[in-house]
Amino acid sequence: MIATLERAERVPQANSEMVVASLERVNKNYGTIRALVGVDFQVRAGEVVALLGPNGAGKTTAVKLLLGLLQPNSGKARVFGGDPTNPENRMRTGAMLQVGRVPETLRVREHIDLFSSYYDKPMAPAQVLATAGLEKLSDRKFGDLSGGQKQRVLFALAICGDPDLLFLDEPTVGLDVEARRMLWEEIRQLVSRGKTVLLTTHYLQEADALADRIAVINKGEIIAEGTPATIKAQTSGKKIRCITSLNISALRQIPGVVEVVEDREAVEIHTGLAEPVVRELLARDASLSSLEVTSAGLEEAFLALTQDSARNGNHSN
Amino acid sequence: MSTAAMTLSNAQVQRTPQHTAVIYAKEAKYEFLKNLRLRMYTASVLSFPIMFYVLFGLVLNSKEAIGSTRVPAYLIATYGTFGVMGASLFGTAAGLASDRGLGWLQVKRASPMPPFAYFSAKVITSMVFSAIIVMALFTLGITLGGVRMPVADFARLLGTLVAGSLPFSAMGLALGYFTGPNSAPATINLIYLPMSFCSGLWVPFMFLPKVVKQIALALPPYHLSQLALGIVGAGSHESKATHWEVLAAFTMICLGVARIGFQRDQEKMYG
């Protein structure tokens, strides 16, 4: 797949010695809701970390703690070794958050001009516009932009201070495929210049496409951490898709089959080793058609992990 | 609750004074432009006092007098107060409630923006709009209403009304911290309109029922309008110092409430 090829070519520049941001044994509650439970999490210099989880998992809370917008109930949030509310730290960070409304009557270049003025060594406006793909839109009022263009402006505001550490909270939510890929490309360009990025998302493909390391979070706890390959390896390896006359309970009886899922007229069979199952299928059903065998992707790993953690009632060691 | 410092950590960043001044200036400039281009805001805030003045002071009653003051001059003071109060309340409260409730303020707080620059920009913008309203009333009054005063008095009236925008900006900040983005305009109107009426900004004070006159003494717009009326020669004979003291005390209380809202916001969950 193209996405995988692009990622393999980029050598991660992570310096494992230097932790630029961390949550240490952090608990955060909103009243009775436990948003983060005993979270230990680190971001190291030069890497792209994705915090991956379903809605309500605690991703945005984690980011807001690291931005100093919230205080933990217990534990510590650290950025560049200091308190996130320290304004010197904010000089070196940029944030792209989910916003309900941005002032609509200001032009793109005016927004960028204002935010750039907060920093002591901002990027040149022309470069900000170029990096965010906004050159032709600089005079447009924010309210006249499309959804994808608005996201790119928020991205521009995050990068205009030329920060060392970038927080992107669900940067492509609500975007169509093309807009999403454009933003990914812009993020990759930044990362190739040595920035550190913490990205939160519930799009598995996005974490796979951009991140050196993924931390899977569910219901306030980090349930898995590793490279995309490691996370994918934590689940049954193969997916067999076919149209068959065999019914689901019969399919489940086949040795080696972990799970069977209906997908419109076809079935998806999850299994560790594909060949014995395929042999059995072909033997039992001569009319079997549309046979596909693929590797289980991140989506299966994610579902398996989050279902497991829900089943175990969130008792992590 | 964490005991980590929740200070207005404004002064700790090493910036040159020029750089800080540039930030404050740009924040104010863009806040003003933003509001100016918002047709809803500009239209309602500018046009209501002007429309009322034209109707009640120039089209009708222009030859009348209230006490010893001609109506066109009298109404500059009262509709000037009304306009200043509206510009300041809507400029600060509605914007703040919206920025807070919809996450924009969080984006700004996550940046190195000095928090105080945000508030000062809103206050300055309110003052500029107040000045625009007052100047518009002056122009109409002089050209169409035959209002004649020494220039120094016009200057004092402008200065008094613009300074009077501060208590209402403070009130707007306090309100903005405790209302949601959708309910803010309605809440503001629920307070603004009755307060204006009871302070004698529509029906001149001397024609209000006695009970209402008592209430007015507690209302900031009454005190501001009395200061303004004093300049056009129609004030009651209360001491000016009393009026300024009431306005100052009101400002302090509102700023205190706003500060509580500011601290409380650090813990609130958004969306």
* Biggest sheet: strand arrangement of chain B: 1-2
Helix and strand run of chain A: HEEEHEHEHHHEHEHEEHEHEEHEH
> What is the overall silhouette of chain A?
globular
Helix coverage percent of residues of chain B? over 70%
Strand content of chain B: under 5%
Number of strands of chain B: 2
Question: Class by helix and strand content of chain A?
Answer: alpha/beta
What is the average per-residue confidence, as pLDDT of chain A, rounded to a whole number? 86
> How many DSSP helices of chain B?
11
Instruction: Give the topology string of chain B: H per helix, E per strand.
Output: HHEEHHHHHHHHH
How many E-type strands of chain A?
13
- Low-pLDDT segments, ≥5 res of chain A: 1-13
The portion of residues assigned to helices of chain A is 25-40%
What does this structure look like?
The complex is a heterodimer of chains A (317) and B (271). Chain A is of the alpha/beta class. In chain A, 35% of the residues lie in helices and 28% in strands. Chain A has helices spanning 2-9, 59-66, 87-90, 108-118, 125-131, 147-159, 177-192, 204-210, 228-233, 248-253, 274-284, 298-311; strands at residues 19-30, 33-44, 48-52, 74-79, 93-96, 165-169, 196-201, 213-218, 221-226, 238-243, 257-263, 266-271, 289-295. In chain A, the strands form three sheets. Chain A has a six-stranded mixed sheet with strand order 5-6-7-3-8-9, sandwiched between helices. In chain A, strands 11-12-10-13 form a four-stranded antiparallel sheet. In chain A, strands 2-1-4 form a three-stranded antiparallel sheet, covered by helices on one side. In chain A, a hairpin with a 2-residue loop joins strand 11 (257-263) and strand 12 (266-271). Chain A is globular, with a radius of gyration of 22 Å. The relative contact order of chain A is 0.13. The model of chain A is unreliable at 1-13 (pLDDT under 50). Chain B is an all-alpha fold and 271 residues long. Chain B has eleven helices and two strands, in the order H-H-E-E-H-H-H-H-H-H-H-H-H. Chain B has helices at 17-37, 39-59, 71-101, 104-110, 115-144, 151-163, 165-178, 184-198, 210-216, 220-231, 240-265; strands spanning 65-66, 69-70. A two-stranded antiparallel ribbon of chain B has the order 1-2. In chain B, a hairpin with a 2-residue loop joins strand 1 (65-66) and strand 2 (69-70). In chain B, helix 1 (17-37) crosses helix 5 (115-144) and helix 5 packs across helix 7. Chain B is globular. Chain B starts with 16 loop residues before the first helix and ends in a 6-residue tail after the last helix. Chains A and B meet through helix 3, strand 5 and helix 4 of A and helix 1 and helix 4 of B.
